[in-house]
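Response to reviewer comment R2.3. The reviewers asked that we include at least one raw input/output pair. We reproduce the pair for HMA domain-containing protein here without editing.
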Amino acid sequence: MKQKMRIKLSVNSEKCRKKAMQVAVVADGVTSVAMEGEFQDELVVVGDGVDTASLIMALRKKACHVTLETLEEVKKPQVEEKSVTPHCCIAQCPVVSNEQPRPEFYRIVHDSYGPTTGCLVM
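Raw output as returned:
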């Protein structure tokens, strides 16, 4: 079960943000960490099987005071199955055949006007 946590940092300083990111990144099960919010004071952690309580305690101990704002399950987007309508009807579609084309033989017939015209009919 993938989870998304939004954690509010109480101290808005570069040092606190950097330390909070370092602590969150090494936590078990974390797949992504990002800073969000108007003042970059919210830490968004996404992971699979992350122990939320342990992460919050580690952040409070090593970075600064934090508060868990939201904890939600990330659901995979469901792909709708659509029936595909053919773009052409059977009469318009080319016929696909696995047969090898047969060679066609033609017999050359001389023109009845004689060899002076040089016209050959195939």
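Strands lie at 2-9, 30-36, 42-48, 66-73, 109-110, 120-121. The CA atoms of residues 33 and 109 lie 83 Å apart. Further pairs are available on request from the corresponding author.
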